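User: I'm writing a tutorial on reading structure tokens. Could you give me a worked example: one chain, its sequence, then its tokens, then a sentence or two explaining what the tokens reveal?
Assistant: Sure. Here is the example chain.
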Amino acid sequence: MDNNVSENLRRLREDHSLTQEALARELGVTEIAVYKWEAGRLPVEYPMLVKIADYFGIPADALLADRPDSKAKPKAADKITYNCRICGGDLVYNYSDMNCKCANCGNKWTISELYPKYEKVISTIRRAGEILNTKTNLSSADEARVLVRQAMNECSGNSDIVSSELVKICNSVLSETDKHDIYCKGKHFLDMKAYGSAIKELEKVRGYKDSDDLISRCGKRT
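And here are its predicted structure tokens:
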């Protein structure tokens, strides 16, 4: 494979703070394919060359040049902005609600509206939250945990503030899944009329959901 393509691809990936795994995910290929491209062990077919160039916002022939313009402007949808689109005022972000508000004129946007590339991540986090809020079967915590880790992996290839805040939310939800796991075990024991075991589990998560009420109910039946 052309050494320029191998070197340029590696340099572009590193300049954009992407791991080989993250770039592979964005391009819809395997991590080993990216590794072989950069090592010069596998040729990049022209359609993929165009796809790579489009992803980095550069002309395809730039990948063949001695050195590509790695400082190409990011796509408009990917830009991180801190000013209101209406009046130019400062935006105040509320990541727990996934929205932001202009401190000057009060206009609001969801974070996914401002940054479409995070729409899937935000949807995945919300789905995990819905599971924790609506399901109490023994596998629900694991189901939510898988979704959160998936969202964190989606953020791993980015180094902007939005990504960092979403990872913080993911870590918070992961802590919630641990509580939810214990709560579901306690509720399961309650349903099985194993009140002593139910109290033992629910005592670990007092204040979570209706655990205090369930403890009281168990106490009345022992």
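What the tokens reveal: Residues 3-64 form a domain with the 434 Repressor (Amino-terminal Domain) fold (CATH 1.10.260.40). The first strand starts at residue 91 and ends at 94.
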